[in-house]
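User: structure tokens for this one?
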Amino acid sequence: MFVRLVYESFRRQTRRKLLVAVAVTLGATVSTAMLAIATDVGDKISRELRSYGANLVVTPEEDSLDVQIGSVNLKPAGDGAYLSEADLPKIKGIFWRNNIVGFAPTLSADVEVRDSRAEAPFDFAQGRSAPQFSPHNATLVGTYFSRALRFGAQTFTSGARATFPWWRVNGTWPGDDSEDVVVGEKLAASLAISSGSEITINGKPHRVSGTLSTGGVEDSQIVAPLAVAQTLANKPGAVRRIFVSAVTKPEDAFARRNPDSLNPADRDRWYCSPYPQAIAYQLQEVIPHSHAEQIRQVAQNEGNVLSRIKGLMLLITLAALFTSGLAVSAAMATAMLERRTEVGLMKALGAGQFSLSAIFITEAVLLACLGGLVGYVAGAFLARELGRAIFGSSLVVGPMLLPVVLTLAVIVTFVGSASAIRHAVKYDPVVALRGEA
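Assistant:
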């Protein structure tokens, strides 16, 4: 009889039940999409924020040492220590190698540049005009632009184009095996240099393949392949700094702990988490005599952005569930008012409050499961489309999210219908059978 009563309720009040199911479905759809985005947004946002550039920097270990005796600082001034270029491919050998988006080594050299604004006298020996340049002191920075590297059996490409994606070149990028250079737009404007022209650096001609715009100090510098800078600085195979762009998760209190002070289990957990500190620690392990640290402003901004986005997702989920609960409450209240005669008849036949409550709660749970299941499917589709529209890739909605969505649907439906059910089971059968409210 219990099953029959529930079945007849669905058959006779199809419209009301459909309204409740739709309200639950909409809430479950939004909740599924927002929860899916919140659980998968970390890597997506971190990769999107890699357009901010490198978030880790590796320098020689000597730079981090503070050698002081009494009040005398014995730390050498200037750039006295270097890293080895031969160790760069080892970056792809760390535990979180797949999280490394790119890296770019740098080496600076002070050079003398001559522009071609002065008139060129005729060189009789060469049979052509030889440029008469006026000298200009500048800084030349050597780096990789898009260098093909190899670590073990793995071949990969890295350089400034991947590590600093906001760099813009008006012209063409130099080849890493060439001696072409790009000139910062401010320096190019002061020297009247344009793409395709030729400048002399320390007495040697170099072709300007383009002008560089970064919005930083590079706009007043010359950027060249690393080998060119090594030759000019007389530092073969040397690297001064390595800028690394890595996908990380925001740091928390556990991330800031010293790994050497942790027990083996906690240390493995810290080491195997993509914290900026953990990746920096692994970089120090593979690059001899190095010190790696996060670029604090970039890492903190990424964490703040990610926390705010997750907070927004949670707020939207709560708002959707609250709205769904209000809709369920209104629909259930109307349904119970329409069924007051039925409730009065059952109470007159001896049904107690517990039996009536069980019938109505069963109906609500069935509606919640139906709406939650449909909402989960619709939410997974919505999350996938939002992922494609925002991040350019689909978001994966795991099956572990289904029980969570069903539980939320049941809770929302129960909370929304509790007041109407409690009021319905307390109907006076005499008043109800008379058709009075």
